Amino acid sequence: MIGAGNVGATTVQRLAELELGDIVMTDVVEGMPQGKALDLMQAGAIKGYDTTILGTNNYSDIADSDLVIITAGIARKPGMSREDLIKTNSRIVGEVSQNIAKYAPKAVVIIVTNPLDIITYVAMKATGFESKRVFGMSGVLDAGRFATFIAEELKCSRKNVQAMVIGGHGDLMVPLPQYTTVSGIPLQDLLPEETISRLVKRTVNGGAEIVDLLKQGSAFYAPSSAIVAMAEAIIKDTKSVHPACAYLDGQYGQEGIYFGVPVKLGAAGVEEIIELKLNQEQNDILRKSSESIRKIISQIEI
User: pLDDT at position 35, please?
Assistant: First the structure.
């Protein structure tokens, strides 16, 4: 785990409780990863897990890792432009990625740092890894939010809802009601179109809604759960299908960019990209989203 903030540390906690493997938590802040690692190790004696957790400020400690998760970076602050955020986090993740290539050259890499679609591209280029080994966490989180809002509306268990969200991780994400079901029942058989549209809009603004409520900081419980779902698929080689920010090479009419699409995840990373049939409105949003991502990528120096 690169980054010991709220998202990184909470992800480490969830991974440790599942005993999926020994964990190294790295951060540039001296003492923070060491202190959180020690706290989590002591929790294991109470909670009942034997996972070894090492807190460190040295990238060399990630040597030969099978999986590396990057949460390092800054959040957008008041007065900061999107361009400033991209420039700062590209620099941070670029440096992190070079160290991953140096110390863990066979690792699969999950990117969490925002703006996700752009930063995942930066990480792939900076590591030099094949694209299937570098991908981002996006749609699992967005689908979780969509599923939650649907369950609240229907007053049913969240466990019964299987939601699908694709596209860019941000304002141009595309929740897909036609591929969303409740215990196998199509969502459009259970809710009127105007209600679905309202839930789709709330999903698109799901992260901002939490930021507005918190006043300071952003979500980390749901993002960490989404990361763990993806990490478990890789570590256990389950071949499970999740929406993820993956490199497109002609799929969905796009080439040379990272984009949120359903993929099959296993030990090798993204083992298959699944193409879905979309309606005209959804295709239009995807095209606008991809154009925005492509424009920014062309301006980045890697």
Answer: 98
Per the omega criterion (within 30 degrees of 0), is the bond before 115 cis? yes
CA distance 4 to 56: 10
Please check whether the domain covering 6-136 is classified as CATH 3.40.50.720. yes
3-state secondary structure at position 128: coil
Residue 246 dihedral angles phi and psi, to the nearest 5°: -120, 160
- Is 242 part of the annotated catalytic residue set? no
| Per-residue pLDDT tens digits for 230-268 | 999 999 999 999 999 999 999 999 999 999 999 999 999
Please report the DSSP string for 266-300 in residue order. Answer: ETTEEEEE------HHHHHHHHHHHHHHHHHHTT-
Provide the 8-state DSSP code for 250. S
Q: How far apart are CA 200 and CA 197, in angstroms?
A: 5
**The tokens 């040295």 sit on which residue?**
58
14-27: pLDDT as tens digits: 999 999 999 999 99
pTM exceeds cut of 0.85: yes
- Could you tell me which CATH class the domain 139-297 is placed in? alpha beta
Among candidate residues 36, 132, 145, 169, the one labeled active-site is 169
Q: Is the dihedral of CA 162, 168, 173, 179 positive or negative?
A: negative
**Residues 115, 89 contacting (CB under 8 angstroms):** yes
Helix (H) or strand (E) holding 12: helix 6-18
Domain boundaries, the chain: 6-136, 139-297
User: Please, which residues have CB within 8 angstroms of residue 240's CB and are 6 or more apart in sequence?
Assistant: 233, 264, 265
Mode of pairing for the β-strands spanning 23-26 and 165-167: unpaired
